[in-house]
Each structure stands twice: as C-alpha cells, then as structure tokens.
Amino acid sequence: MVKTTIPEEEFTYPGSTGCPGCGANLVMRYLLKGLGGRTVVSIPACCWAVMPGYWPSNCLKVPLLYTAFEATGAAISGLRAAFDVKGVEDVTIVGFAGDGGTVDIGLQAMSGAAERRTDAIYVMYDNEAYMNTGIQRSGSTPYGAWTTTTPVGPKHEFKKEPKKDIMAIMEAHGIPYAATVSVAHPEDFVKKAAKAKKIKGFRFIHALSPCPPGWRMNPTQTIEVARLAVETHYFPLYEIEEGKLRITRKGKGTPVSEFLKLQGRFSHLTEAEVDSIQKTIDEAWKRLLDREGPEA
C-alpha cells in the first residue's frame, strides 16, 4: 500500500460546474486539504466564481464570500479585521483568484493587503489568461501563446510580451512566505499550504492551473501537462521563507518542446521561437539555482 501525507478528509463536494480536466478544481481541493475546515474563502470574478454552482448549490464545505474583480485584497483584509474584532484567531482567511484578477485587475488591492501585513493567504490559480470571459490574454499569459486577443493570423501574431513574474513582485513586498505549487505534485502542494497556515502575516501561493479549453489541450492530459511544466523548468516548484529560497523539486530539465507540443495554443511556433523560449527558461532556472546556493 502506497503511503501518502495527503489528508483523506475532503472539503470540496463532487459536481462543480468546471470544465472537464479543469486544473483549478484540483487547486482548490488540495489547498483546502492543507488548510482544513476552519477556513473562509473570498473569490472575485473568475472561473471559480461560477464553478461552485448556482444558489443554493455549493461545492465547497467552507464559507465562501464573493467579491468584485479588483477587490480580493481588500475583502480578505476586511474579513481578517472582522474575525479579529470578534476574537476569533483560529480561522484561516484565503483570497482565491485567477491570474487576471491577481497580476492585473486585483494587483493594487493585493499589494495593499501585503503592505499592511494582513494575516491572510492569497492564492493565485494561474491558467494564464482570462478564461472565464473568453480566453483573453492577461499579464500572466506567456510569450508565444495564442489567445482570442492575441490571435495567430497571416502576420504570425501571438503574445510577444513575457509573463509577469508575480513571485518576484510579491517577494518585493517583504512578505514572510511565498511558494509555487502544482496539481501534478499534490504532496508538495498540501505541505506548502499547511506550512503557510502556520505562518502569520501575508502569504502568497502561486498555483499553475492547466485549462483544457484555453490551452487547447486534451482534458485527460491535465496532470501530464502540469507535470511537464515542472520537469521542463517552465514552472519550477520552490518556496521563499523569510527571504530564503528553496527549490522543492528540481525537475529533469526535459526540453520545453515536450510541454509546448501538447497545447494547441503554441502549435504555431517555429523551431527558432521554441529555442528562444528554451533559452529564457534555462536562464531563469540558472538564476534560481544560483540563488538557492550549494547549501540547500
């Protein structure tokens, strides 16, 4: 029998309205396994704003607050203040937003909450575009990706700008803990969520969340694609605790072409463009290794 450190108790019900193969479903599932039932989740406009179902349906076993697209940081600050006034200290406050509602529309409120040292956890499930409203590009969409607002036409258009480094942005706020997680590595995910729960102050978790419709991929390959993101170093798994970086899974250094070829959003790329993406990934990976140092 295979041993696992993942808690058996579930805090999500089956039957959400998410798409087949939705990575965001697993992000929420593993997050709550790590945090437990004494958790309140605030969700802005995003896929997860509709996935729990229509009232009175709900696929979560924890209290849920819906808020405006740009207001997640303000909402979790208000929730924390309310519980503090009531003297309730054992409830974990979570902001749970997509990449558009985090790196773009919600950045100002999240930055304010981090600067105020709000005692809450902010989770960005990153499907790398505005998926709920039609697959428009976001600041988290990677270079080379097709979206409906960066279509691939006769002039070989696609997103030419690099993906925002949200981990660096949040680290610059001096927060005590930030981590990247993947649905392909649930034990690493749950462990980091449980660690974040025990830390006071503003904590940030960046979760890669494959989106079959938006990534133009087979919904049965969600875990495979998420795993390749880690193995190719496209999405490294690491944590930054009090300024110290630690890589939690090295990955094999598989060519990034293995990750890209499973997604139609990259099918237009030339060999030279794939090589350019590989070079960028290799350079970023080296910076991570250099920062972690030999004592890690």
If classified by CATH, what would the architecture be?
Answer: 3-Layer(aba) Sandwich
CATH structural class: Alpha Beta
Poorly predicted runs:
none
> Strand content of the residues, in percent?
15-25%
Q: Look at the helices and sheets and give the structural class.
A: alpha/beta
Shape: globular
The largest sheet, given as strand count, sense and whether it forms a barrel, is:
8 strands, mixed
What is the gyration radius calculated from CA atoms?
A: 18 Å
The name of the CATH topology is Rossmann fold
Helix-strand pattern? HEEHEHHEHEHEHHEEHH
Number of domains: 1
Distance between the termini: 31 Å
Task: List how many beta strands DSSP finds.
Answer: 8
Query: CATH H level: which superfamily?
Result: Thiamin diphosphate (ThDP)-binding fold, Pyr/PP domains
Q: Tally the helices.
A: 10
Share of residues in helices: 25-40%
- Overall pLDDT, averaged? 95
Task: Describe the secondary-structure layout.
Elements: H1 23-35, E1 39-43, E2 64-66, H2 72-85, E3 92-98, H3 100-104, H4 107-115, E4 120-126, H5 166-171, E5 177-182, H6 186-198, E6 202-208, H7 212-215, H8 222-231, E7 237-241, E8 244-249, H9 257-260, H10 271-292
Parallel strand pairs: 1-2, 1-3, 3-4, 4-6, 5-6
Antiparallel strand pairs: 5-7, 7-8
